[in-house]
């Protein structure tokens, strides 16, 4: 009986060690991605010398590679600034907030879809309320969005990804927020541009 107790303690210590290692790895990847995103933003700002340059043309010509950190997502209520990475595959989501590649970018007047893990980048996401804001800093400008509605959908519900006929920042994460294991649902926040 004593051996079984020791075995459970060893298994528990190993599990905690693996979990801790994964968290540290995620945080390190996110820090590196944030540096890369901030460099890309600075580079974009420094190249926009002409204030009369057509912003629509700049947005249209903006190019992103898969897994590249190219922008930041600021969540003022949570005091967080997170890197936005191109793609929503596991490698991209390990580095930061993923941008669904076939959705548009800020300024293109359609659905912008961002996704992230509830236990890494979107920790404390449950504290957000209607009226809270997201700020997306792109290399070609800053865009502020206000959360106007939220919903919870099953994890396999793809109806969230759609043309909306207007610019909407859709941010998704797993739900319930404190669920242990693979969560069965997705929390979806719909945020609309805030007029300057």
From TrEMBL:
Lineage top rank: taxon: Bacteria
Cross-referenced InterPro entries: ArgE/DapE_CS, Sortase, Sortase_D, Sortase_D_1, Sortase_dom-sf
Pfam families reported for this sequence: Sortase
Keywords linked to the UniProt accession: Hydrolase
PROSITE patterns, A to Z: ARGE_DAPE_CPG2_1
The protein's name: Class D sortase
């Amino acid at each position: 009986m004593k051996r079984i107790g020791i075995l459970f303690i060893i298994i528990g210590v190993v599990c905690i060690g693996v979990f801790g290692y994964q968290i540290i790895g995620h945080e390190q990847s996110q820090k590196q991605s944030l540096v890369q995103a901030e460099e890309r933003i600075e580079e974009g700002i420094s190249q926009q010398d002409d204030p009369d340059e057509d912003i629509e043309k700049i947005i249209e010509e903006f190019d992103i590679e898969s897994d590249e950190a190219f922008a930041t997502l600021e969540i003022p209520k949570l005091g967080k600034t997170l890197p936005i990475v191109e793609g929503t595959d596991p490698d991209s989501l390990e580095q930061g907030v993923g941008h669904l590649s076939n959705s548009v970018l800020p300024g293109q007047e359609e659905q912008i879809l961002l996704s992230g893990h509830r236990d890494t980048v979107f920790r404390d996401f449950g504290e957000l309320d209607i009226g809270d804001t997201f700020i997306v800093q792109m290399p070609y400008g800053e865009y502020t969005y206000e959360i106007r509605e939220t919903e919870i959908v099953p994890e396999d519900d793809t109806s969230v990804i759609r043309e909306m006929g207007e610019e909407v920042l859709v941010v998704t994460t797993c739900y319930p927020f404190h669920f242990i294991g693979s969560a069965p649902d997705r929390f979806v926040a719909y945020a609309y541009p805030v007029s300057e």
